[in-house]
Design brief:
With 315 residues, the chain is α/β, with parallel strands linked by helices. The protein has a single domain (24-311), classed as Rossmann fold, CATH 3.40.50. It has helices at residues 3-17, 47-50, 100-113, 140-156, 172-180, 185-191, 241-245, 292-311; strands at residues 59-64, 71-77, 88-92, 116-120, 165-170, 197-201, 223-228, 249-253, 276-278, 287-289. It has an eight-stranded mixed sheet. Strand 9 and strand 10 (287-289) form a beta hairpin. The protein is globular.
Length: 315
């Protein structure tokens, strides 16, 4: 091998190690093919009961995708007195798609912070009901572009205050939050100044440095992470130490399964504490057990996290 050829190979190896390989936007923007949400999604709950009935905005095609080639479905609920000058929360779903737990989180954010809330869909818009295989083009990189697209729409069209804008995701949505805030050359250029912080509940956090299992951490803004010791869906053993320790806060519940905040009686219903069920995931029918104590503790920490960030100037 000549010196020149060796030099070229070393340069490519160096670039790959520095993760400057171009971000393939085309691959991670599957076409948007659907303009209306299912009345009864995959878990057979009533979408009407979890949106309109509880005074959350209707799920409709309204958020321009990152590539500008379609509209993502979303439920947008601005505060009755106007969207500007108050907190805004974007809620992103896990691998089952939007479920009552996501709408329950939106209700809690709305009522606790007198906030605007956006519940964002990534799958239905693209003719997909779920993403149980996980490490596909429908994973964290695609979802991160959706988070950016939602933030830009809220900022530019709805004039929300980005210094008070947060995103929360659970499960694959939590994985999305960790990826979106990762200091990646492409993502961080779009995320900078867009969101004040991120909240990741029982996230998937495998981090192999590949396009469908991308690098996670360090983070470009404050992130709070919650994990469960009995979680067999997104086990903590899959998380590289740095992914959790790079977070601004990390709270671990040793006795909790995946989905301890499950809205097992719908967004407006009173959840049944301690009730356990099995996920529909064909690859892993993991346990989901509701815990009022863990949910209340998580929410107390989220309140503190959000209020502390809002109270101090953003950089």
């Amino acid at each position: 091998m000549t010196f020149t050829a060796l030099s070229v190979l070393l340069v490519f190896a160096f670039l790959a190690g520095c993760q400057t390989i171009p971000f393939d936007v085309g691959f991670f923007q599957p076409p948007i093919t659907v303009s209306s949400a299912p009345a009864r999604p995959i878990t057979q709950y009533s979408l009407y009961n979890n949106t309109t009935l509880v005074k959350l905005g209707e799920m409709k095609a309204q958020v321009p995708s990152f590539d500008g080639k379609g509209l993502l479905l979303a439920s947008w609920t601005p505060h009755p007195k106007g969207a500007t000058g108050r907190p805004t929360f974007v809620v992103v779903h896990g691998g089952h798609g939007l479920v009552p737990t996501n709408f329950a989180s939106a209700l809690w954010f709305r009522d606790t912070f007198h906030a605007n809330v956006l519940v964002l869909d990534s799958y239905w818009s693209r003719g997909q009901s779920e993403n149980w295989a996980t490490r596909t083009r429908f994973g964290a990189n695609m979802r991160s572009l959706d988070v950016i697209a939602a933030g830009q729409w809220l900022r530019d069209v709805n004039k929300v205050d980005t210094a008070q804008m947060f995103v929360m995701g659970d499960s694959q949505g939590g994985w999305t939050v960790l990826r979106a805030f990762t200091d990646d050359p492409f993502l961080s250029g779009h995320m900078k100044g867009l969101y004040r912080g991120g909240i990741a509940a029982y996230p998937g956090c495998f981090s192999h440095g590949t396009p469908t299992a991308p690098t996670l951490s360090p983070y470009t803004a404050p992130v709070i992470v919650f994990t469960g010791g009995k979680d067999t869906a997104t086990p903590i053993s899959e998380c590289p130490k740095r992914v959790l320790e790079s977070a601004s806060q990390w709270r671990h519940y040793p006795d909790q399964t995946h989905g301890w905040d499950s809205a097992n009686r719908g967004a407006a219903g009173i959840p049944v504490d301690g009730e356990c069920g099995k996920a529909m995931n064909v690859y892993n029918k993991f346990a989901v057990c509701r815990s009022d104590d863990a949910t209340d503790d998580m929410r107390r920490h989220i309140q503190s996290f959000v209020k502390n960030l809002i109270a101090r100037p953003s950089s």
